[in-house]
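Students often ask why we bother encoding 3D structure as a string. The short answer is that it lets us treat folding as translation between two languages. Here is a chain of 532 residues written in the first language.
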Amino acid sequence: MINVWRLTKLQLLSSFGLNKALHTKDSAQRRKALLLSIAMIAGILMIGAVSFGYSFMMAQSFEQLGRMDLLLAVMMAATSLVGFFTTVYKASGVLFSYKDYDMIMSLPVKTSHVVASRVLQLYVMNLFFTLLVMLPAGAVYAIYVKPGVLFYLFFLLTLFFITLLPIIAATLVGTLISWVSSRFRSSKILNMILTFAFIIVLMLGSFTLNQGQQAIADVGAALGDMIFKVYPPASLYVDAVCSYRVSALLFFIAVSVLVFMLFSILLATRYKAIHTGLMTSRASRGYTMKPLQANSAFKALYLKELRRYFSSVNYVLNTGIGMVLLLMMSISLLFVSSEQLGTILDIPQLSDSLSTLSPLVISLFVVLSCTTACSISLEGNHLWILTSSPVPKPAIVFSKVAVNLTITLPVTAVSWGLLVYTLRAGLTESILMLAVPVIYACYSALLGVMVNLKLPKLDWTSEVAAIKQSASVLVTMVIGVLTLAVPAVLFMLLPGVGGNLILLGYCILMAAVCAGMYRYIQINGERLFQKL
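And here it is in the second language, the structure alphabet:
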């Protein structure tokens, strides 16, 4: 097991950039690492506070039902579902699509140890989210129930095993999707389609279950039965933590550990063959010589970046899911009225403010679909080709921004048309519903590439590290969400001022910020590239 621990430690230190932060002698790098650490701690505290508030509100309802155990059951099931959801589309990248595969496999370690270390890497990534959700829920449960000492012991012990089963299941699904798609000529496109289809089906199923939960919210036993039928490990978890049953605790831990060990051993027997199948490319049978086309430097860079984007399944899935969710939401509102949506979300006045809030909601999906926050990092050790090419460096940056806008603007326009029809918005609301997301699309694209130029991660071995775990992605997302929170806060602080007026003023301000960032890249693009 010592080899598994060493491999896992090295992979985690490399993925999160901790190795460089701990051993660098550059004072600027140390300051950057310190500021990022402070920002991450602040973000973790904010997420923990939101999680505590959500658990506290749920606990009030469950206390009236006399079923406080449902709080831990619901949060445990939700944690498992989110862990499963997020692992499906990154499992293949972490397990198979990493650059140092040849080096790792040449080490004198068993293949099962390599597989175990890669799965443990996924486990640690999901463990952070588990702790952020379950620790506040456990604190709220303790406040209401005031349980005995065994609760704290069993609760802390089971925290480390909650996410094991969902990760294994998600890894199986993600690997199966990648393997099936690799059998076809257009394997990457098929992989994207299958993964998106699976995620959409999973979300539709979750929405159906949520509606069912609303219908039986007054019947505690029925709600508990539904959760335990959908996810049986939740029953074992509740019996162990809330009822202090040692047999349930041991069975829950044993099943989680045994499934993990069996998966590692079984996958190890076919690991090399699966990797070869996934990484093998197929050439087209018929090749015909065609006239070469000459393009401008910007167009050539744009087409290159667009091909790079669609060549990476992880890149598309992580940055395109926001646009898919936006389109799904817009289509679903054709069949669900705003009044019904307010009832489902337990917000009675939602229909009155939905037209005003919709520009911010659309913009949130746009911010979550920023492709530029990792576009520089994904160049990796090929960045020298761009830096040495005889083209203006701002053109390289703007080509990446153009790809981001190509992904976000068409979906935003389609969703805008559907929402204008569904919400019966007036002229002013309709204009703002389009203008605000378009400006935010430009803002997030420019912000992402600027942050990535300041915080590049070029030493990645797996694309997932650059796409999901890099500091630039985290900083871009946090700043984007915070800027969206400003007008929402103004709505609450200035109830006498019309929402449309606030949005119009903020829209003008954000347009000026975009113009400033555009000008900054034009002037300083060469210098920023020289610092990479």
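Translate back mentally: The chain is about 80% helix and 0% strand. Keep this in mind for the problem set.
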